[in-house]
Amino acid sequence: MIIQLFNKLGGLVWNLIIVVPIIKHIYDTKLEHLQALKLLRKILASLQKSDNSTLLEEVGASYAMSDAVKNGIVEFVCEIVKYLPANMWRTDEDDRDIFLNAIVHRQENIFSLLYGLGALKFRFVTSHDKFGNNMLHLAGMLAPPCRLDRVSGAALQLQRELQWFKGVEDMVPPVCRVEENEGGKKPRTLFTEQHVDLLKAGEKWMKSTARSCMLVATLIATVMFSAAFTTPGGTDQNTGIPLLLHHMSIRVFVISNAVSLYSSTTSVLMFLAILTSRYAEEDFLKSLPQKLIIGLSTLFLSMATMMTAYAAALAALYTQGLRWSTFSNIFDCLYSCFPFRFTTISSPS
């Protein structure tokens, strides 16, 4: 009886949940995905039983496989390879298999399937297309615009490209790293030539961002430095001790002021290090993005603690209006979080 009651309550709650538009959209999308996967399995099972290569061409299995790789539909690729393993060896008009195409279109989910092939992996990592390009050559080519635009900022786009190149470089045999294609170019040379414009754009973007943020950090450091010598409520003219020293708000003010000053100074140093960098290709892999993240993080911290110091000063000065100071404190703490909500940095994993 109790179990039935819980089942009815669970069903009622679920019916209420799926009425919410966002949840209903997710539910419908997931349902369509599962239905499409079931349909695909039935089609592939029928093709597997027929064992007719002509039928495979008629239904366009190879084209479907190619489109799935280009769009990163890993479930589709896995199901085709599971039911029709021979399709894993199929190549397109450029003699590129599924893993070479995965590199060209920067589909990491498809490329990661290579790790589960065991001994067969060597067969794929040493393959070439009709232009003599191996995996590392294709990783050195510029990614399609639709994949580049998934990362904001030219500098972070170049970082993503370098991560792809390094990842493929660790996968292929050492001989592939110095191998030349039909154009007589090695993978590293091809990467440099293909990304020269992106390198210039990344340098420009990084310098522009660093200058703007360093200006803000400098202003915060200047304000917080001067605020350290103007304690709210004033000081005793004889002893120099703050008159409101016994208030907890003053202690919060002092601590927040110090944290804001130190973090803004750190931010200035990080952005200064970015501006004085040599801007080589390798710098965009780790050095520059790390400095940018540290600089922005400390800048946001300095802004948050600056607003906290401001709220603490108000709370100390307007002790009679407790409700107002409490409201101001809450408002300023929420407002200080705005940079985190409206500023997004894409850091590829």
Which short descriptors sum up this protein?
flat; disordered C terminus; single chain; Serine Threonine Protein Phosphatase 5, Tetratricopeptide repeat; 0% strand; mainly alpha; 349 residues; 18 helices
Could you give a quick summary of the protein structure above?
With 349 residues, the protein is mainly α. The protein is 68% helix and 0% strand. It holds the Pfam family PGG.
Describe this structure in words.
The chain is built from 18 helices and no strands. With 349 residues, it is mainly alpha-helical. 28% of the residues are buried. Keywords: Membrane, Transmembrane, Transmembrane helix. This is PGG domain-containing protein.
User: How many strands in all?
Assistant: 0
Q: Approximately how much beta-strand content do the residues carry?
A: under 5%
Helix count from the secondary structure assignment: 18
Structural class: mainly alpha
The average pLDDT value, as a whole number, equals: 81
Radius of gyration: 30 Å
Could you spell the SSE succession in H and E letters?
Answer: HHHHHHHHHHHHHHHHHH
Biggest sheet descriptor: none
Number of domains: 3
Could you estimate the helical fraction of the residues in percent? 55-70%
Uncertain runs are 339-349
> What is the overall silhouette?
flat
* Separation, N- and C-terminal Cα atoms: 51 Å
Oligomeric description of these chains: single chain
Domain PGG: 203-315
Keywords: Membrane, Transmembrane, Transmembrane helix
Protein name: PGG domain-containing protein
Transmembrane segments: 213-230, 250-275, 296-318
